C-alpha cells in the first residue's frame, strides 16, 4: 500500500509532490531534498552546510517512516559543481559512518546546470528493510 510520508522535521514540498512515499513497511522513496532548514526555512551558503542539511532532511523522512539511515540502499546526488565532489564525498561518508552504516548505498552523482531555489545540491534516496 502506498502511503505519504510527512514530517515537520524536513522542509515542506515546494511543488506538487510529497516528501516521501512508503510502499508498505519495507520500502521508502524520498523526493529530492534541497538544503532548506526545516525550522528557520533558510538556505545556508556553501556546499558543506548545504550537504549536511540535505542529508539530515533525508534522515528525518526515512525515520518518520519507521526505517533508519542504515536502510538507505540508493541515493542520487545532483550538484551544480562536480569540482566540489571531494567536499560532498567527505560529508556524505561521515554522515553514513556517524549513522553506523556498514555498507554504503549505491549512488549516482550528476552535475546539473541549476537546481530549485538556486541551491548547490539536491539528493534523493531509497530505503529498504528486509
Question: Can you tell me about this structure?
Answer:
There is one protein chain. The chain has 130 residues and is an alpha+beta fold. It has one domain (2-128): 2-Layer Sandwich (60s Ribosomal Protein L30, Chain: A). Helix content is 25%, strand content 26%. The chain has two helices and six strands; from the N terminus they run E-E-E-H-E-H-E-E. The chain has helices spanning 47-64, 85-98; strands at 2-5, 20-23, 27-30, 72-79, 106-111, 121-128. It has a six-stranded mixed beta sheet with strand order 1-2-3-6-4-5, covered by helices on one side. Helix 1 (47-64) runs parallel beside helix 2 (85-98). It is globular, with a radius of gyration of 14 Å.
The overall average pLDDT, rounded, is: 96
| Main beta-sheet annotation | 6 strands, mixed
Rg result: 14 Å
Question: pLDDT below 50 for ≥5 consecutive residues: which ranges?
Answer: none
CATH superfamily: RutC-like
Number of domains: 1
Beta-strand residue fraction: 25-35%
CATH topology: 60s Ribosomal Protein L30, Chain: A
Describe the global form: globular
Order of helices and strands: EEEHEHEE
Q: Briefly, what CATH class? A: Alpha Beta
- Helical content class: 10-25%
CATH architecture descriptor: 2-Layer Sandwich
Sheet/helix structural class: alpha+beta
Distance from N terminus to C terminus (CA atoms, Å) equals 16 Å
Count the E strands: 6
Number of helices: 2
Provide the spatial order of strands within the biggest beta sheet.
1-2-3-6-4-5
Amino acid at each position: 500500500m502506498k502511503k505519504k510520508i510527512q514530517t515537520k522535521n524536513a522542509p515542506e514540498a515546494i511543488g506538487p509532490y510529497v516528501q516521501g512515499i512508503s510502499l508498505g513497511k519495507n520500502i521508502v522513496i524520498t523526493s529530492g531534498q534541497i538544503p532548506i532548514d526545516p525550522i528557520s526555512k533558510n538556505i545556508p551558503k556553501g556546499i558543506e552546510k548545504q550537504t549536511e542539511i540535505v542529508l539530515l532532511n533525508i534522515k528525518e523522512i526515512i525515520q518518520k517512516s519507521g526505517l533508519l539511515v542504515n536502510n538507505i540502499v540508493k541515493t542520487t546526488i545532483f550538484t551544480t559543481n562536480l569540482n566540489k565532489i571531494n567536499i560532498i564525498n567527505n560529508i556524505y561518508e561521515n554522515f553514513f559512518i556517524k549513522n553506523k552504516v556498514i555498507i554504503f548505498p549505491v549512488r549516482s552523482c550528476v552535475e546539473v546546470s541549476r537546481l530549485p531555489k538556486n541551491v548547490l545540491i539536491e539528493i534523493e534516496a531509497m530505503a529498504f528493510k528486509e
